[in-house]
Amino acid sequence: MNGGPRTATVRTLDQGPVTVPCPSWCLGVHEDGLDLVDLAHEGPETVLTVDVPHGPVQLLDAGLCQYPYSSDPDDRGVQVAVLLGTGWHRLDHDALRMLAAQLVVHAGRLRDLAAELLNAEGAL
Ligand SMILES: [Zn+2]
Fold this sequence. Notes:
alpha+beta; five-stranded antiparallel β-sheet; 1 helix; 7 strands; 36% strand; binds zinc ion
């Protein structure tokens, strides 16, 4: 490494090979064969793994992403992609903070349900 910007050459469907600068957080893995507008930088993912009786379940995969050539200007900046249900959603800083706050509220509801479960079991 010479300390200069890291680049990657991606084979796009519509523009052929394109060499792009990669942000420091990008894993450097880019999917070939997509249109340039779909070229994405992706960072490492974090995931919530829940151990349930039938084995671990993964939820809320999340990682930094950027679509620098997107036709949607909102996607050209850095966002966090989060897997919610079966779909990926790109969230900006405020939306991600909101999601985190909602998860804290939901954790409280789960604790309340656990207490309710104890009471329900006691009432059998
Ligand atoms: Zn990249």
